[in-house]
Structure formats: C-alpha cells, structure tokens
From TrEMBL:
<dbReference type="Pfam" id="PF23647">
    <property type="entry name" value="TRAPPC13_M"/>
</dbReference>
<feature type="domain" description="Trafficking protein particle complex subunit 13 C-terminal">
    <location>
        <begin position="146"/>
        <end position="240"/>
    </location>
</feature>
<protein>
    <submittedName>
        <fullName>TPC13 protein</fullName>
    </submittedName>
</protein>
<dbReference type="GO" id="GO:1990072">
    <property type="term" value="C:TRAPPIII protein complex"/>
</dbReference>
<dbReference type="InterPro" id="IPR055429">
    <property type="entry name" value="TRAPPC13_M"/>
</dbReference>
<dbReference type="Pfam" id="PF23643">
    <property type="entry name" value="TRAPPC13_C"/>
</dbReference>
<feature type="domain" description="Trafficking protein particle complex subunit 13 middle">
    <location>
        <begin position="10"/>
        <end position="133"/>
    </location>
</feature>
<dbReference type="InterPro" id="IPR010378">
    <property type="entry name" value="TRAPPC13"/>
</dbReference>
<dbReference type="InterPro" id="IPR055428">
    <property type="entry name" value="TRAPPC13_C"/>
</dbReference>
Length: 247
C-alpha cells in the first residue's frame, strides 16, 4: 500500500461578533495555502434554523450589486480574503429571549472553487459555534438614540428591557446623573411585573452638560422581589455639540 498525503488547499478561520440587537456578525477569513491561484466560485453561509442570513460582501454601484472583491474573484497563493455575514433571529425566535440567549450553533460555510486547471473543489465546514453572550437576569438595550445632540438640550432615547431569567420580576427604575449626563423625569419609577422572556419598551429623556463624545450611563433596575439591583453604565455613546455647530 502507498499512502499519499493530501494537503488542504484552504485555511479557514472564523470570528463572531454579538450585537446588542441579537444580531450576530460572522467574519470568515479564507486563505489560499496552495502554490497556484484559485477562482472562488462560491462562498456562502447556510444558517441554522433560528437565523436568517444577509451577505455583506457586495456594494451597490449605480443601482447594480457588485462584489467587493471585483469582477474576477481570484485568490492568489497565500493571499487571504475576508467575508462578512449578518445573522438575524427569525421573528418566531426573536421574541423568545431565553431561546436566543442559549443558541450557540450558527450555521456552516459552503466554499466552492476552481483551480487554474479547471478542477473544481468544495469545502463544507462543520457547524460553526459561537460563545453565547451572557446578559444576566435582566437585559437592557437601546432601540433608538440620536447620533448627535445639542449641548444642554433634552433628547429622547428608547430602551428595551428583557427578563432573561426564569422567574417573574417586579422592577423599579432609578436614574442616576453623572458628571455629563443628566436624566429628566422622576427616579424610582415603578415598571411593574415582567414575566420570563418578556420585554417592555421605555422612552426616556436626558441631556448632556459637556461637549464631545459622551457615554450614556446611570440606569439602575431593582427587582423588588429579591431586592437585587442591576447597574447599566456605558450603554451607548452620543456626540454632543453646541447648537451653533449643529445648525
């Protein structure tokens, strides 16, 4: 018997980025580790049953969708190319915070290429897994926030509060001012009971007394059942300018 060592033609590395909106961004780095150029015929992501996928590897030019790698997608020897995908939870799963919280299987990559002699090759990865984000018992995320606001002028944000635990909570919201961020309204507001995997939207008003890039901080949620307080700082950032500059 003669043993022939077969070297793999591609090296595939993946990175995951968990967004606050339950979206997952996948960066796939594909390197040609052969000694010849290859034509990348297809690089796609087959998502798991809980996600829809959008490829972020094209740009719109004059109403036409073109590849970010150009018309000829050749990968030279030892060159690396990065592919980006955005996965969004399907509607029936997005409303179940506990389900999405524990999902680790994202999907698998399907890669098809041709060598310079016209031979076709295919590589399909095993199921890609991410590290599931830990949100704790209560998750607070921002739904809307302006990019730029005027100095010492109130602006509105919308928060989403999700009960990620398996028990009902009775929540109270406290707003603590910082050196630059000042909350408008009454602190100690009763939000009522929030059942497991349920969410509520909350509109809040605040202003900044300092110019520049400021962090939105100072929100506190207290569960009156367990007398436990959850602190939320550096939730987002907003650019504060004088009214003359913005106009």
């Amino acid at each position: 018997f003669h043993f022939i060592q077969v070297l793999k033609p591609l090296d595939v590395k993946t990175k995951f980025y968990n967004a606050e909106t339950d979206e997952v961004f996948l960066e796939a780095q594909i390197q040609n580790i052969t000694t010849s150029p290859m034509f990348m015929e297809k690089v796609s992501l087959e998502p798991s049953m809980m996600y829809n996928v959008a490829e972020l590897n094209t740009v719109d030019t004059a109403g036409k969708s073109e590849s970010t790698f150009g018309a000829r997608t050749y990968l030279q020897p030892m060159d690396t190319r990065q592919y980006l995908y955005c996965l969004k939870p399907k509607q029936e799963f997005a409303e179940k915070a506990g389900v999405i919280k524990g999902v680790t299987v994202i999907g698998k990559l399907d890669i098809v290429w041709k060598t310079n002699l016209g031979e076709r090759g295919r590589l399909q990865t095993s199921q890609l897994q991410r590290m599931a984000p830990g949100y704790g018992d209560v998750r607070l995320s921002l739904e809307t926030i302006p990019d730029t606001v005027n100095l010492e002028e109130p602006f509105d944000i919308t928060c989403k509060i999700t009960n990620c635990s398996e028990r009902t909570m009775d929540l109270v919201l406290e707003m603590c001012n910082t050196n630059s961020i000042h909350w408008c309204g009454v602190s100690g507001r009763q939000l009522g009971k929030l059942h497991p995997s349920s969410s509520l939207h909350l509109a809040l008003t605040l202003l900044s007394s300092v110019q520049g890039l400021q962090s939105v901080s100072g929100l506190r949620l207290t569960d009156t059942f367990l007398k436990r307080t959850y602190e939320y700082d550096d939730i987002a950032q907003v650019c504060v300018v004088s009214s003359e500059v913005k106009q």
